[in-house]
Write a structure and sequence with these properties.
656 residues; Signal recognition particle alu RNA binding heterodimer, srp9/1; alpha/beta; 44% helix; 15 strands; Rossmann fold
Length: 656
């Protein structure tokens, strides 16, 4: 069978070895597999700034050659002197342009049919006309023949080249700039139009089956979908569907995905817009865009309006600094008015998402507006496994891959984190030269997400490696012998992330939502185990426990101030509130206490007492386990990392 080639035949220059065919700047690349049909033979026209440069150069050359200043122009007095001396024999009079004098008699010839002028030979001079009543007398006196010429067509050409073409050129540039600025959202002529992304009916492929880990939230939204499909079922009985549904949850839990799934299941048009898109630099733009958005939505009803990051325009007006007349509040007021302006039978439903419901204006959350709040929370163990299965559909997994184990090792992870772990595992498999993803790739992806990227090239002295090894072994030993503590999954002294010289990873056996007082003390003990091990082995401490001390101190403070677990203030919450206009969203330095200074002194002393007691208890434990501490640290220095099974085997084998 004869083979055919899809390669386009090229010119002689392009066939030379090492030479690529050169294309004109105004043509794009030839279409692959094109048949050469069309006005340009299959070539695609492409706009370039080279057009503007060529146009400017052409206009400059035209002005220089045709409309520029001529070198044969003389003064009017010199022109009269040459007439008086008899050098000029014939004069062509054009009051609107020049007087042209011919030094010798030119042969009679017909004027140009376009300009109605005689051709000007090389021995002619010109001058600018000046009003002089004696000029014609001088011509008659010297016997010079003169005649007038008409410049109707010439004036039209001058007008076209002097005014029409420059104005057209600048209008062309203005149109290009406005088009590009309009694509960027800065066109002042359309600034009041909303910038919502409109997805037509049937174009959304997302369904509830593509969303996992938030079963309760899906059940809440099934009613919304059913109303959009069968509105008469609710209106016949006199019921009204909620006008607005607010999706609340931490970042990455799938609020936007849930809104797309609702639109996909209902099969209606979908308007998607961010809260930040309403506000621009011009006053009144946000309110105008809200009006335009609801106008278009009513025309396409039934439909769904989804406003992402609602807190960008929906912050509470009670704590405003600049009063009630700023741009953001005008936008919020218009949104409140529009939500009151449509009834429950219009088929228009508003979905909004935020991860900061505490800062929203109370008027948004009252019944009749966003009267239903759906919590899209972090997934539990089963939810994480279901999410991993969805994201792993497009990934080639090894037969022994256990996604349930991956889900157990990712407590607190949201859907976006789990999607990133699946992608990282696939990239690690490709980096290792494999075509399928193994369980070890998922483990490394989790460690990379939690602790950071490995830095094996970082040079660490032997003394520092010993300190890090005993530090991490101290954490692991305390966790291994503390009742209720999470099992140790891995110990490593390989540097990771921004300054982490080692880490001890613990994996909870189940999701926990409550913690007892003894379990909180156990967490403090595990965090203090690293410094205690350094103190026992080296008889000195280092800065490696800075992060551990911060976490342990925070737990102790919350036990006293928030959880009511102190001896003196048992079952009393020593809370703090935001100062002034900032409210509960105030940062830590701007919070003010609701208790006396003496109480704060007690809190500080109680934190110091708890930390001292727990540190002493941890030191006693590690001193009793000193042979095991030395053994595990020695193995860790040799292998650099220990997994769960290796660590458990070392705990069960008595140290020599």
């Amino acid at each position: 069978m004869k083979k055919t080639s899809n390669r386009r035949p090229s010119g002689r220059n392009s066939r030379k070895k090492g030479k690529k065919p050169q294309f004109p700047f105004f043509l794009g690349k030839p279409p692959v597999g094109g048949n050469g049909e069309g006005p340009l033979g299959g070539w695609q026209f492409r706009f370039s700034l080279g057009y503007i440069v060529v146009l400017i150069v052409a206009m400059s050359l035209f002005n220089y050659m045709f409309l520029g200043k001529n070198s044969d122009i003389v003064d009017f007095s010199t022109f009269k002197e040459k007439i008086a001396s008899g050098e000029i024999k014939r004069v062509e009079l054009d009051a609107s342009s020049y007087y042209t004098g011919y030094l010798t008699a030119a042969p009679a010839e017909a004027p140009d049919p376009l300009t109605r002028r005689y051709a000007r030979p090389q021995n002619a001079i010109r001058t600018v006309p000046v009003y002089d009543p004696d000029f014609v007398k001088l011509l008659d006196q010297k016997g010079v023949s003169y005649y007038a010429v008409s410049r109707e067509n010439g004036a039209l050409l001058d007008f076209v080249f002097s005014w029409v073409l420059p104005i057209a050129f600048f209008f062309f540039i203005w149109r290009i700039l406005m088009k590009r600025l309009g694509n960027a959202g800065s066109n002042v002529l359309s600034i009041g139009q909303n910038k919502a992304v409109i997805v037509a009916e049937g174009d959304i492929a997302t369904r509830f089956g593509d969303v996992a880990g938030v079963d309760e939230a899906k059940d809440e939204l099934v009613e919304v979908v059913d109303f959009l499909k069968n509105p008469r079922k609710y209106t016949d009985i006199g019921g009204k569907i909620p006008k607005g549904v607010l999706l609340v949850g931490p970042p990455g839990t799938g609020k936007t995905l849930m809104a797309r799934a609702v639109a996909g299941e209902a099969g209606v048009s979908f308007f998607r817009m961010s809260g930040a898109d309403f506000v621009e630099m011009f006053v009144g733009v946000g309110a105008a865009r809200v009006r335009d958005l609801f106008k278009q939505a009513r025309e396409k009803a039934p439909c769904i309006i989804f406003i992402d990051e609602l807190d960008a325009i929906g912050k509470s007006r009670l704590n405003g600094i600049a009063g009630g007349n700023d741009e953001r509040e005008q936008t919020l007021n218009q949104l409140l008015v529009e939500m009151d302006g449509f009834d429950g039978t219009s088929g228009l439903i508003i979905l909004a998402a935020t991860n900061r419901p505490d800062v929203l204006d109370p008027a948004l959350l009252r019944p009749g507006r966003f009267d239903r709040q759906v919590l899209v929370d972090r997934p539990d163990l089963k939810g994480r496994e279901a999410i991993l299965k969805i994201h792993a559909k497009a990934v080639k997994l090894a037969p022994e891959t256990d996604l349930a184990a991956v889900a157990r090792g990712t407590p607190g992870f949201v859907g976006a984190d789990l999607a990133n772990i699946v992608n990282e595992a696939a990239l690690l498999a490709v980096r290792a030269g494999r075509k399928i993803v193994h369980q070890s790739d998922f483990s490394e992806a989790i460690e990379k997400t939690v602790a950071g990227l490995q830095k094996k090239n970082r040079v660490i002295s032997d003394s520092e490696r010993r300190i890090v090894a005993f530090h991490e072994t101290g954490h692991a030993l305390v966790a291994g012998f503390t009742e209720g503590s999470d099992p140790v999954q891995k110990i490593s002294i390989v540097p990771r992330g921004f300054g982490a010289l080692g880490y001890t990873m613990q994996m909870p056996t189940e999701d926990r939502y409550l913690m007892t007082e003894s379990e909180l003390y156990g967490k403090i003990d595990v965090l203090l185990g690293g410094r205690a091990a350094e103190d026992i082995v080296f008889d000195r401490i280092s800065t490696g426990a800075a992060n551990d001390l911060t976490k342990a101190t925070d737990i102790a403070r919350k036990m006293i101030t928030d959880y009511g677990m102190s001896e003196r203030f048992r079952n009393v919450a020593l809370t703090q509130r935001g100062a002034g206009y900032l409210g509960p969203a105030a940062p830590e330095p701007l919070m003010h206490r609701e208790y006396a200074e003496s109480t704060q002194q007690y809190v500080d002393e109680e934190i110091a007492r708890v930390m001292a007691e727990r540190y002493a208890a941890v030191k006693r434990m590690l001193e009793a386990k000193r042979p095991l501490l030395d053994k595990i640290a020695g193995v860790l220095l040799e292998k650099e990392s220990l997994d769960e099974h290796e660590f458990q085997a070392l705990l069960e084998v008595p140290a020599v």
